């Protein structure tokens, strides 16, 4: 064990980030929790044999039970790998710089999704495209803004007029008479 | 042969001008989807599915299945030119395809890949043409216990034949089944697993899940590697194509073997991805030039591409004949059948002859169309990846959001899509397989229905699944497959000495 520790220390500045073991354990716990919730809910509905055959909870009960059991197994495997140290489970799930990149996509997308009920899909999409181009692509506003606008317009023509599918609209579309 | 006559009628359907146009449109869209990261066969079709409600089912499935063929072709382009597998099943194509492109043999590699794909798909379609009606005829005698047995076997295949951890496969699968039960129970009308939330009553639509799990998560995974693509130039002229074609017959043995592997892996729901890896491995082991694999052997492109296409195509066989899809994309197409009001399963071959044979005929034509489109248009498709990732990613996110919304015109579904995206990102990075999750989500209701009906028939006796020799033997095979990893584990416990003899990584 100590030998592997020295090896890791010898490597120049190993990348830092979220450890795989932590995410493995969290995922197993979460899935196990879902299984437990399913068991609980199925027991409430009745997981046995009713007047008209299997009750509503019969199938989900067993599914929940197997999910909980499999998650326990995954938890045990993850913890065993962790105890073995660097060799088995010391890998990184994601390094900090990688996580920063992922969040630079995920956070604007979350805001985009949250904004759609208020601004409508078209305005939000135009803003998302422009934001991505400026923040991640290094474009100036005078190329990003028309690109965002063009995306929204193309989407509008394709869906509202071509396929006749109504997408969420906001105050601007109402003001324009749609 | 009755099949030939029916197939000819199918060609008459598929060759209507409208359908030919849809075929070309589908293939072109499909290649585009295959080239772009974050859009693939499964979620590309999931996004477009709601737009096909107004079409006749035959036209809709022709377009959507052609998107599937196109996506299979498209994956090869990015693998060879950019060393980025556009689709999971084209990972093995990068091993030799990218070195060939670096040596300036991109045209040769691409031509070989496309031709091999075509050959693989063609063999699988011929198999499907003659085998699917047989299987369907056989399955007409199935009752609920036998159907449950077939579904049990498909899911057991994931555990027994999958490459990853069996416990993770099991957990992913159960998560899918659990998500499928959320909402109203159609038998008793009770609400299950909604925990008092009104949004949950509708349950989880698998299309939304597919868009998130395969689309959003793919964007998140690919952003980790940075924001730029570096690619090789592609030029295909007629001379290169003809020269490569002249050399292709030499590799007939590899092509046949890979097609056989692909067909087998496609019918059992192991899927195109393991088929391509397995076929690459077998080709390397059996080749006299095995050492040169990975440095730009054309066989290393032919083997995985043939197998991936054969698997992708034959995955439709159990979908059509039994209503049990062999891959996530086939599962999405199956979801389409249900939405267009068709009942998947063996009765399709009896009640919807025009639909089934139109689809099968379109598989022949779609692959010809696909081959032509990719050979002509490779440089344009490759040029798409020169568009900065920031723009592509944003547009894909918008397209995914629109796709998720249009499934049932619900804004909440866009939130669910994003949640599934994050879940997919985590599961993918931890090697939880997503295919069994999606298949369980699609088949959950029908699996449960078959299970309940069987138990009703037998008044609660689980022995009903073993009451006929057919159902019993399918169940027994399934149990054996599911228990396979467990047996291996017990074996290693019983013989600890054998475990220690394994070479430890020094």
TrEMBL record, chain A:
Residue stretches spanning the membrane: 21-40, 60-79, 99-132, 144-167
Domain DUF1468, residue spans: 28-168
First and last residue of the signal peptide: none
Pfam families (alphabetical): TctB
Domain of life assignment: Bacteria
Alphabetical keyword list: Membrane, Transmembrane, Transmembrane helix
Protein name: Tripartite tricarboxylate transporter TctB family
Organism listed in the record: uncultured Acetobacteraceae bacterium
UniProtKB/TrEMBL annotation, chain B:
One Pfam entry name: TctA
Transmembrane region(s): 20-49, 61-82, 118-140, 147-164, 170-191, 203-223, 319-343, 355-381, 387-405, 469-494
Annotated keywords: Membrane, Transmembrane, Transmembrane helix
Keyword Cell division recorded: no
The DUF112 domain, residue ranges: 20-439
Keyword Transmembrane on entry: yes
PANTHER family to which the protein is assigned, alphabetical: BLR4373 PROTEIN (PTHR35342:SF1), TRICARBOXYLIC TRANSPORT PROTEIN (PTHR35342)
Name of this chain's protein: Tripartite tricarboxylate transporter TctA family
The organism of origin for this protein: uncultured Acetobacteraceae bacterium
